[in-house]
Each structure stands twice: as structure tokens, then as C-alpha cells.
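Moderator note: this is an archived Q&A kept for reference. The question asked for a predicted structure of one protein chain; the sequence and the answer are reproduced below.
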Amino acid sequence: MSQRTWSSYKTAERMWRRCELESGNKLELPWGQQQTLFFLSWLLEDRKVSAATASSYLAGVRKLHEIRGLPAPVLKNGLVNQVLKGKKNLEGVEKRNRENRGRLPVTLTIMKILKEAIRRWGRPVEDKLLLWAVCTVAFHGSFRIHEILCRNETFFDPDFTLLQRNVRIDELRIEADKLTRVLHFTVKCPKESKTGQHTVVDIYETGGPTCPVKGFCRWNDRRMKNPDQDTVLFSDKYGTPLTGRRFNAQLKQLLEEHIDYSKGQITAHSFRSGIPSLLGSLGYSDEEVKKVGRWSSRAFEHYMKLPRTSRAAIAQKLGKL
């Protein structure tokens, strides 16, 4: 099995144990319909997960039976499937009734608005530098947010989470007398890798107001260093990882007075479409856009949300916009 599949099983086990802890009920294996419905209710009502996520957790629990040498039960029987189908139908209704028209891309203008909003944010300077570092890295690296941020504040899987040792700073000579700084991010099991191989993403210095290297280094120089290189990289001064969920909440808090959320919303995934949209509007070729965003198919077209009209050279040009 792939590392991603094993990770989903480990996550299902963690959710099972968390359900026991929060509810005070023991759900020992093997499971029957009663334990399955209790777990499903907790997932949908307490954790507010989607029908698809709940279904994947049930599949993970079923596999845990096999791993422990128990007969694999039929957890998704008629009643459980009806609950999942009902939840899926409700999600469809909510999606249709939603006022916003989808996700907006992060543009350079939004980045500059965000930078000023963070500057006026009533939080400690360490929190401001951390948030801006993540914003600049996510934007210029076209990252999927959980490639660089942790999914949970209380635990993490080192096989899939960006750690301190997975980032290094280097210098690259682009001209005879000119050096530029580069951030090397080792992304673990990226979506585009079918074999689970690590991918190194290089993010170049732009010299502009949204320079990712400057933003990262300012935060990195200020933060309290942890001698353990196997700790989560993007964490606050108390060592608590910044999660995608908290990142989204902070974005909304800072931008809701500037963005009309009835027309669209800015989320963590909006950063992934920022550079493709910008490069598309500037006339860069499809192949250049695909290289920047690490797409192997034409899926990048879904992210190019501005009208359609190497890496180090592009970064230098972006810094002048």
C-alpha cells in the first residue's frame, strides 16, 4: 500500500481513540452496528466532517480489524449507508444555497492588503511574522496548504508533516556578480507523486514587497529555535503548530473587511491559484505555469482564474510588479 493509504488508516485510528476520549465510551474491536453508528454520529455531529471523510474513516476502522487479525466487518450496511447518503444530500443543499460563488485566487493586490492587515493586527510580533511567512511561502510556492502546515495542533505524523530539517536556505548565482537566496522545501508525499517520493520545491528571492525569502528569514531569525530538528516547522513561540484550520480563521479575520465574501472567499487553497492566475494573465506558456505549480496534467487550468492573455527569472520579474 502507498504511504498515503497507510496514513489514512492511522488517522482513522486516532479519530477512533479521540471519540472514546471525548465521549467517555469504550469502542473496543470488533465493531457491530451500534459502535459504528455511535462513531459515525460523533464524526458528523461533533467533528462536523463531510460524508466522504466519515466514509474514509469507516474504511480505515474496517482495515484496523484486519491488521489486528479480526474478521473484517461490514460497517457500511444499509442503515449506515442511508445516514451517509443523507449527509451527502444535506451538503449538496448547503452548497447550492451558499451565497459565495467559489474561491477567489490570492493576487499581489490581496497579498499587499494582507501584509498591511497583519501589520495592524493586535497580536504579538512573533505571530505576525509567522503568519506572513506562511502567506508568502504558500503564495510563491503554489503549495497545497497541508504540504507546509500541520493538520492538528496536538499530534503530527513525521512522515507527512513539514519539519524543521525539511527546509534549508541556499544561495544561487544567477549572474557573474549577482547572488539570489533560495528556500529549499522538501515536500513529503506530494499529491502529484504517484510513488510517494519526496519533492524539493525551490522558492526564489524576489526582492519585492511580498518576497518569500525575506518573509521567511525575518520569522526564522526571530523565532525561538528548537534544537530538535524533527519538530513541526511552522509553529508559534509555544511550540504549537499552525494548522490549516487556524490559518483559514486568521485569513478571514484579517480580510473580511476588504473582501466581499458574497462573491467569493479567500481560503488557504486560494494561495495555490495565485501564481498560476498571475502567470496566465502575463502570457506565460502552459508549460511554465505547470512547472511553477508542479502540475503533471492540465489540472492547472482549473486554478487559472484570471483572464488568459525559468523559475528564478520569473521570481525576479514578480518582485518588480
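Archived answer notes: Residues 3-23 form the longest helix (21 residues).
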